[in-house]
Amino acid sequence: MAYIDPHIHMVSRTTDDYQRMAQAGCVAITEPAFWAGFDRSSAQGFFDYFRQLTDTEPERAANYGIKHHCWLCINPKEAEDVGFAREVISIIPDFIDCKNVLGIGEIGLNKNSKNELIILEEQLALAERLNQLVLVHTPHLEDKLKGTILIMDAIENSSLDPSRVLIDHVEEHTVHAVLDRGFWAGMTLYPDSKCTPQRAADIIEMHGTERLWINSAGDWGPSDPLAVPKCCLELASRGHSKSLINTISYDNPLSFLSQSGKFSVE
Amino acid sequence: MTKKEIVDQYFLEHRAKLLDIAAFLDRIDRSGETDADFRIKALMRCIKELESEKEGRTERILGILSDQTTEPIDHAGMKGACGVVPPTS
Does residue B57 lie in a domain region? Predict the structure, then answer.
C-alpha cells in the first residue's frame, strides 16, 4: 500500500533506510529543517544544510523512487541566540523558490523561552510575507502542553490561515485543542516519547481522521523510519478499513501538502 | 473490537510492560539510596491514576507530567526535557 511519510529527517538516515521505506510502499516524504544534535557555529552551516535539503537529498531519494520535499527554518533549539537566528532567517528567501521547498518548518518552541517565542513570531511573519505553508514542532515531554498553547496563540495573532498550518507531535493532551482551533495535527510515532503506533491508532479511533496525519520523524535518535507502515498494520489488526488507513497515511498528507502547489508523489 | 478481542490482542504486551515497571522500581531499591527522585515521585502519582475507573487516564497522566504554567520562561537553560517538571521550575 502506497504511503507518504510527511516528517522524516533523511539527512540522519542511511541509504538502506530509503530502500526499506520504498519496499514498504513509501512514495514521498517531506523533511523539515531541524537540530543536528549540535549547534552550528555559523549561519553558513545552515546555508550548506539547506543545499543538502534542496539538492542532495532529493537525488538520494529519487534512486529509490521516493519524491523528496523539504521545509526550511531555524529550529527552536538554536533560536535562543536571537542574533544568530536572524542571520539564518535572512538566508531562507534565497532557497524558498527551490522546487522541493514546501514552506517554513519545523518552527515552534523547545523550552518555551521568550527568545524562542520571538524567533517563532518572526518566522511566522516570514511565512505570511512569502505566503508559505507552516509545519510546527511542539516541545518535548513536560514542555509540550504549555508550548502548544503558546504556539497556537502566536499563530492566531498572525494572519496565517490555520488550515495552512500543521501542528506536529500532538498527543492525547494536545490533539483536541489543535483540531478544535482549526489546525492540522500530526502524530509522531516514536518508541519512547510522543505516540506509539498503538496510541496513535487510539487517537484516530477517538478523533476520526479529519485534518490528522501520522509520521515517523525518523532522525538520529531513537526512532523508526518504518513507523508509518507499522501504524497502518496496527490499524489493520484492529479491523479498520483500507479506506481509513489510506486516508491517514496518504490522502491526508496529500491534501495538506498540495496546498503548497509544489508537492508531488510522481 | 470487543473487550475480549482487545484483551486477547494486548494483554501479554501490557503484562510485560507492568513487569518492566516493577523491575525498574526494584532496581532503584537495590541501589540502597533512599532519597526520593522527583521523577519517581511523579511516576508513582501516575500509577495511582491507573486505578481510576474513568476513561481518559492517558490524558490525565500527561497532565500530571506537564508544566502547567502559562508564561514563557526568561531563558532556555538547557535543550532537553526530562519527562517531568523539575522541582526548580
Answer: yes
| Domain span at B8 | 3-61
Provide the pLDDT for residue B34.
87
Nearest to A173 among B9, B66, B73 (CB): B66
Q: What pairs with residue A103 in β-bridges?
A: A71, A133
Q: Is residue A265 part of a domain?
A: no
Chain B hits for A140, CB-CB cut-off 8 Å, are 80-81
Q: B78 — contact with chain A (CB < 8 Å)? A: yes
Which residues share a beta bridge with A72?
A: A104
| Residue B52 contacts A, CB cutoff 8 Å | no
Domain assignment present for residue B16? The answer is: yes
- Whether this model's ipTM surpasses 0.85 comes out as yes
| Number of domains, chain A | 1
Instruction: State the pTM of this model.
Output: 0.96
Cα–Cα distance measured from residue A246 to residue A250, given in angstroms and rounded to the nearest whole number: 5
Pairing of strands A133-137, A165-167: parallel
Tell me the C-alpha distance between A137 and A144, whole Å: 10
- What stretch of H or E contains A31? strand A26-32
A114 close contact with B: CB closer than 8 A: yes
Does the residue A87 lie in any domain? yes
Cβ(A43)–Cβ(A87) below 8 Å: yes
Residue A63 near residue A21, CB atoms below 8 Å: no
Q: How many CB pairs under 8 A join A and B?
A: 78
What would the mean pLDDT of A63-67 be, rounded to a whole number?
98
Distance CA B54, CA A57 (A): 48
